[in-house]
Structure formats: C-alpha cells, structure tokens
Amino acid sequence: KQEVTQIPAALSVPEGENLVLNCSFTDSAIYNLQWFRQDPGKGLTSLLLIQSSQREQTSGRLNASLDKSSGRSTLYIAASQPGDSATYLCAVGQSGNQFYFGTGTSLTVIP
Amino acid sequence: EAQVTQNPRYLITVTGKKLTVTCSQNMNHEYMSWYRQDPGLGLRQIYYSMNVEVTDKGDVPEGYKVSRKEKRNFPLILESPSPNQTSLYFCASSPRQIMNTEAFFGQGTRLTVV
C-alpha cells in the first residue's frame, strides 16, 4: 500500500525567503503527483499537477519537481509572502483511481 | 462560478442515526470522490465515481455508502454512524479521472458523532 510522507510537518520562515517542501512516497508506480494548498476552514486548491512522465511543473513562484524512481517530489516556493501561509499537501495518483495524500506541511510566513 | 458545494458544513449527531452529506458540482464533471481527513492520517479516499451509476470503493469504505444517480450529485450516506466516523469530510470532482486533471474540492463537512 502506498505511503506518502511530508517533512517537515510545520515550517516557519521570514517573508522573502525561498523554501522547499518535501514529499516522499513508497511505491514508484504512480500516474501523477499533485500539490494542493489547504487554508483553514476551506477546501483544497490544486497548485500543480505533474504527470509521471514529467520532471517538473512551474506556476508563477511555484515549481514542483518529481523523481519517480527515488519516490520524491519537492515544491519550491520563491520569495515567500505572508499570503503563502497555509497547509501544503501532496497526493499521488495510482491505478484503480486511488489517490493517496500526505499529512501535509503547515507553512507560516512571518512578515 | 465553478464550485463543489457540500452540505451541511457542520453536523453533530448521535450514534446510529442515519445521515446524508450532500455534494453537488456545477462543472459537468464526470469524476467525483469523497475523502475523510483525520489528524496524523491525512486525507483518505472513501468512495469514488467515474460517472453516473458507476461507483467504487476507495481506501476506507467501511461504514459508508454512496450513490450517483445524476452527474452533478454524489451524496455520502452513513447508515449507522459511529464515533470513529467523527472527521472532516471533503468531496471532490474533476473532468475525468482525478489522476489526469485538476481536482476541485468542496469546503468540507465537519462531522461529530457522539
């Protein structure tokens, strides 16, 4: 069974800093990997989707990479802002339409 | 506005009293699914539906039922709720299989079973 781990569980950084969030998974037979943002009291917002054949995806200040063979993905956030404060979740999609989520990294960007 | 709507947002109920959490999407999406989110465990898939009248079990289906009689609605049914079903529930939809396209999530339903 797929296990998805996100480290660290919580991260606090000063505004303007570049940061990296990590996601690891145990079974490399995945279709894709998505990064989501979750704000308190709200649902999840999809940030980036990487197909298994891709190495990275970029959207604005966000860059996600995928190394399927080593079971790792990173989410790079450039020039962090207080509005980036949220919980970030990664999820891997596998055969059978199964979708496995990590437990998330809670990010706080201090003004 | 494109959205996934869940109701209710908050619900407190007693053990054994049947309840339904509704989920509706206005994007004509084929794929819909339900998740529960628990501290330390992340989100776990309960059921999913590829299209009308097509549903399948996810990772934690025990104690839940679903139906997909129309494309826009995907209700989650707890026939006999128990305290271990106290959780935060999310409904999601996407144009096709969730693994190929962006997923849209509802705002969540916080359920407490006493």
Shape of chain A: globular
Q: List the total number of helices of chain A.
A: 0
What class do helices, strands and sheet pairing of chain A give?
A: mainly beta
Task: Give the helix level of chain B as a range of percent.
Answer: under 10%
- Along the chain, the helix and strand elements of chain A come as EEEEEEEEEEE
How confident is the prediction overall: mean pLDDT of chain B?
A: 92
Taken as a percent bin, the fraction of beta residues of chain B is: over 45%
Give the structural class of chain B.
mainly beta
Strand content of chain A: over 45%
Following the backbone from N to C, one meets helices and strands of chain B in this order, namely EEEEEEEEEEE
Give a written overview of the molecule:
The complex is a heterodimer of chains A (111) and B (114). Chain A is mostly beta strands and 111 residues long. Helix content of chain A is 0%, strand content 59%. Chain A has no helices and 11 strands. In chain A, strands 2, 4, 5, 9, 10 and 11 form a 6-stranded mixed sheet that branches. In chain A, strands 1-3-8-7-6 form a 5-stranded antiparallel sheet, with no helix packed on it. In chain A, a hairpin with a 2-residue loop joins strand 6 and strand 7. Chain A is globular and about 45 Å long. By secondary structure, chain B is mainly β. Helices cover 0% and strands 50% of the residues of chain B. Chain B contains no helices and 11 strands. In chain B, a hairpin with a 2-residue loop joins strand 5 (42-51) and strand 6 (54-57). In chain B, 39% of the residues are buried. The model of chain B has no long low-confidence stretch (mean pLDDT 92). Classes of the chains: A mainly beta (111), B mainly beta (114). Chain A binds chain B through residues 4, 31-32, 34, 36, 41-46, 49, 51, 89, 91, 93-94, 96-104, and chain B through 4, 31, 33, 35, 40-45, 48, 50, 56, 58-59, 90, 92, 97-108.
